[in-house]
Specification:
The structure holds two protein chains of two kinds. Chain A is α+β, with helices and mostly antiparallel strands. Chain A contains four helices and two strands, in the order H-H-H-E-E-H. The longest helix of chain A is centred in the middle third of the chain and has 13 residues. Chain B contains 29 helices and ten strands. The chains are: A alpha+beta, B alpha/beta. Strand 2 of chain A pairs antiparallel with strand 10 of chain B.
Chain lengths: 95, 667
């Protein structure tokens, strides 16, 4: 399997989940190309992104005492493989 | 004036953002520019004119894009211009120091035009980074002219104009590299393209539209629905998609393009030693490493608790001194009598005992905000997610759990983003086991009283460890008993490391500390007023009070854990608000913070104090948390389970630890 997009999606489906650094190392990707592939996977509906702002209490940071400041720049973003992503992996024999 | 023999060419300048495209444009056109907007869009359109002998080039600067999907207005403008205006030549300006990312757009542009030139800009930067590009090999691979440039130094412009002219006049043959689709896909694309009207463009353009219809490109579908002549092609595309299972056609195309680029990069680019890991990668290798992540996390959090404990102690002592002085003034200023006794031994004792921990809370949240702002907290979440994921638990639970370090109430509300109901309920159920800041106040006091110096920090660290361990163990148990099923995949994107911004850090630390003070001034004061009544009525003496009688009832249970009846009664205060346990102790022992330390040291042993901390950590969520659990689950059954399972767990742990202490001679 030479397709880096599919290999990335398959690695994201493994446990324990590799870090971004490990993924880039294993696939031989630059940080920009890795980011682009993640963007493609999200755009095409194989991954679903959740900005962590959305995970916060109602009222946003004002309603939370944890002191965090999840912004698009500094806050973590969580992603999960969608059912479409899982179907793609199954169809391609990667799951 | 332009002579009649002058030839005019329209040239589009495409490229990723920040590749020096504007510099190329400005250098070529000079002052011959005009700026407007793309029709119907708020995106700026810049055009300019380049004049050479016998040649006028109308240069159109397309918006910077990374690809030609229909994702953004910029991408739509770029691709529609190339498709509809059909410029004579498209110049793709690329950043030589970041070739792989840039060449993806080259492959996309090659799908739209044959007349393509690659302007390889920023060669100097690439060389400085140790990236050597074999220009002849790159040109052969891509099948288009490659013009090396350093736009900032005005190098390569004339060569670019010559290449444009050569391609436009067909003096320079071009055969751009294109991603090859499977024969089956090619056949389908051609069949659909044949159904498109001639106005859709040249055969290559029609094939492109056909592929986009198959990929269900939003803009292509919109156009097909708008123009009746496209209806047969649209119907055929829908039919082929379903019958041939082409749902992942676009993904296969993107994957094939990157696979091709990887091969090209291996053949034409040589990377020197300077392309080593950047410092974020180097740090991440340690911080998120499989074997180093957890020890590093322990070190960071241990360091944070130690620093909180050691830094806050002198400040807390000073603040307590102030509160004691203020208490002395109140004692002297108020007339003696039952009301003064009530005010000083009830609300004031409770408030001053809890408020004395303001520096602890401020320092803890300052350090917490520094970890958050630096980007480390996201790494901690990643490391813990891996541990939880390995145990079959939902990784996304970790972030709401992490919020539980602050307060369990917003943390429970944060579980709303977990779409799987079972995973969400599980996260809600275990969240009260997280050691929140309110419990921290109690633990810092008791650790300082019974385990002075660094031993106190170790006790705090062990309680945080126990909290995390219990969350994992109880999650696994509930998962096995109540929420069986496959955990959803979860990936946490790690933001780059940042230098913490003092203003952000202090704002968030202050917000948390202010909330703590407000609660001390309202809930805790009110609660200690009520507790004062219960510890004095009907009396006389606390033993004959209502609280004393309840305490006597609980004494046998308490004795199994080494806790006397006073400690057992104080747990009721912790139910109303977790810091309330400390305020309750002050009221029950009838002393302020300094007096409380001495009174507790006389009445309670060190091991009992540790067991009491463990029981306080686990036994029951505070009242506000229970309300939040009911609001989020809309179920009394789950609320009841979340409220009471801790009682059994607390007793089991408390009794077990007490017996262990007795065996080891610590009790």
């Amino acid at each position: 399997m030479n397709d880096p997009l599919l290999r990335l999606l398959a690695l994201l489906d493994t446990t324990p989940r590799p870090s971004g650094f490990e993924l880039r190392s294993r696939l031989g990707l630059t940080r920009d190309t890795y980011d682009d592939l993640m963007t493609h996977l999200t755009r095409m509906g194989y991954l679903e992104a959740h900005a962590m702002d959305g995970a916060c209490a109602s009222g946003g940071c004002q309603g939370c005492e944890v002191g965090c400041q999840s912004t698009p720049d500094t806050g973590p973003r969580s992603l999960s493989i969608t059912s479409r992503g899982r179907r793609y992996l199954e169809r391609s024999g990667s799951r | 004036m332009v002579s009649p023999s002058t030839r005019t060419l329209t040239v589009a300048l495409a490229g990723n953002p920040n590749v020096g495209k504007s510099t190329v444009f400005n250098t070529l056109t000079g002052l011959n520019q005009h700026v407007g907007n793309w029709a119907g869009k708020t995106v700026e359109r810049t055009e300019g004119t380049v004049r050479r002998s016998g040649l006028t080039i109308r240069l159109v600067d397309l918006p910077g894009t990374y690809s030609l999907t229909a994702l953004s207005p910029e991408e739509l403008i770029a691709r529609e211009y190339i498709l509809d205006a059909r410029p004579d030549v498209v110049v793709h300006v690329v950043d030589a120091s970041n070739l792989e990312r840039n060449l993806y757009l080259t492959l996309q542009l090659a799908e739209l035009t044959d007349h393509l030139v690659l302007a390889l800009n920023m060669r100097d930067l690439a060389e400085r980074r140790g990236i050597r590009i074999d220009l002849a090999a790159l040109e052969a691979e891509l099948g288009v002219p490659v013009v090396p440039m350093i736009a900032e130094r005005r190098e390569g412009h004339e060569a670019l104009v010559s290449a444009i002219e050569a391609i436009a006049s067909d003096r320079r043959p071009v055969d751009p590299l294109r991603v090859k689709a499977s024969p089956g896909v090619v056949e389908v694309v051609e069949a659909i393209a044949d159904l498109l009207p001639a106005e859709a463009g040249a055969p290559r353009t029609r094939a492109w539209w056909a592929r986009k219809l198959l990929e269900q490109d939003v803009a292509a579908l919109a156009r097909a629905r708008r123009e009746p002549a496209w209806a047969p092609a649209l119907r055929r595309a829908d039919q082929e998609r379903q019958t041939r299972g082409l749902e992942d056609l676009e993904a296969e195309g993107v994957g094939a393009a990157y696979a091709l680029l990887t091969e090209i990069m291996n053949r034409v680019v040589e990377r020197g030693p300077s392309r080593s890991l950047d410092w974020t990668d180097r740090l991440d290798r340690l911080v998120t490493g499989r074997w180093t992540g957890i020890p590093f996390l322990g070190l960071i959090f241990g360091g944070m608790f130690w620093a909180t404990f050691m830094l806050a102690r002198p400040l807390t002592d000073r603040l307590n001194g102030l509160l004691e002085t203020l208490g002395g003034w109140l004692t002297r200023g108020l007339p003696p009598g039952p009301l003064t006794d009530f005010l000083l031994e009830g609300p004031w004792a409770g408030f001053s005992t809890v408020a004395g921990f303001f520096p602890t809370i401020l320092i803890f949240f300052t350090l917490f905000a520094i970890l958050e702002d630096s980007g480390y907290l996201a790494r901690a979440a990643f490391v813990m997610d891996r541990v939880m994921g390995a145990m079959g638990l939902h990784g996304r639970s970790f972030l709401p759990l992490l919020m539980g370090f602050g307060c369990n109430v917003p943390a429970i509300m944060a579980t709303r983003t977990i779409e799987n109901q079972g995973d969400r309920l599980l996260t809600i159920l275990v969240n009260p086991l997280m050691l929140c800041q309110a419990r921290l106040v109690l633990f810092v006091f008791l650790a300082g009283t019974f385990f002075p110096g660094s031993r106190g920090a170790l006790v705090l660290l062990s309680l945080y460890g126990l909290s995390a361990g219990l969350v994992i163990a109880v999650s696994m148990l509930f998962k096995r008993l109540l929420f069986q099923g496959e955990p959803s995949s979860f990936i946490l994107e790690l933001p780059p490391y940042h230098r913490p911004i003092p203003r952000n850090v202090l704002t968030h630390a202050w917000r948390s500390a202010r909330g703590f003070l407000q609660r001390a001034g309202t809930q805790i004061t009110l609660m200690t007023a009520v507790l004062f009544v219960f510890t004095h009525w009907p009396g006389p003496g606390i033993e004959r009070s209502l609280a004393g009688q309840v305490g006597q009832l609980l004494a046998p249970l308490g004795s199994t854990m080494g806790l006397d009846w006073r400690l057992m009664v104080s747990l009721f205060g912790g139910f109303l608000a977790k810091e309330g346990a400390l305020a309750s102790l002050a009221v029950i022992y009838g002393v302020g913070e300094d007096g409380l330390s001495a009174a507790l040291q006389q009445a309670v042993g060190g091991w009992s104090a540790f067991v009491y901390m463990v029981v306080s950590l686990v036994y029951v969520p505070c009242f506000s948390t229970i309300v939040a659990i009911h609001r989020e689950t809309l179920s009394w059954r789950w609320t009841l389970l979340a409220s009471v399972y801790g009682l059994g767990l607390a007793w089991g742990l408390g009794a077990g630890l007490w017996q262990l202490g007795r065996v080891l001679g610590w009790a």
